[in-house]
Write a structure and sequence with these properties.
This protein has 161 residues and is mainly beta. It is built from one helix and 13 strands, in the order αβββββββββββββ. The strands form three sheets. Strands 1, 2, 3, 8, 10 and 11 form a six-stranded antiparallel beta sheet that branches. The longest helix is centred in the first third of the chain and has 11 residues. The radius of gyration is 18 Å and the shape is globular. The two termini are 35 Å apart.
Length: 161
């Protein structure tokens, strides 16, 4: 009888919002003026979101005069932070030059995405989500050791794939 009461109490508890924790994500760099004819698509790296820095990308070698700018990416349950520990410069100017994070899910994972001005020094204004993917456009912006980008996310309660 007591087990039945505990189960009912657990079922009545409010369901927590979604999280990125434990999700499989592939992070890549893309540059394009025409999405169907990219100038650069870097090798993607896939990890499971957990504690600490998920990605620490470095140069991969030039493709059409373009290469990956070193970036560190930390993904939390509802936040993504990017920093540039090495080098200084300006991102190549294109319609899209930035990051794509593809989470393994078929549902619309992101209900809302916003730049956290307190944790961001870059003037990023072009961020959007498509199903389980998040696009961050840094085209033409400057980067260096002082540059940071923090995104706050409202994550939908999508099942893990």
């Amino acid at each position: 009888m007591i087990r039945g009461l505990v189960l009912c109490a657990l079922l009545a508890a409010p369901v927590a919002g979604g999280t990125l924790e434990g999700r499989l994500v592939t992070f890549t760099v893309e540059t394009w003026n025409d999405r169907e004819a990219p100038l650069l698509v870097a090798r993607g790296r896939t990890v499971t979101v957990g504690q600490g820095t998920e990605f620490g990308l470095g140069p991969e070698g030039f493709t059409g005069g373009l290469d990956v700018v070193p970036v560190a990416v930390e993904i939390g349950p509802t936040r993504i932070e990017l920093s540039y520990p090495k080098g200084i410069g300006r991102f190549f100017d294109a319609k899209f030059n930035g990051y794509v994070l593809r989470f393994e899910t078929d549902c619309a994972l992101f209900a809302a995405v916003s730049v956290d001005p307190a944790g961001t020094t870059m003037k990023v204004t072009d961020v959007w989500a498509e199903t389980g993917a998040l696009y961050i456009n840094v085209s033409g912006l400057g980067y260096g050791p002082e540059a940071t980008l923090a995104l706050d996310l409202e994550v939908a309660d999508c099942p893990l794939s």
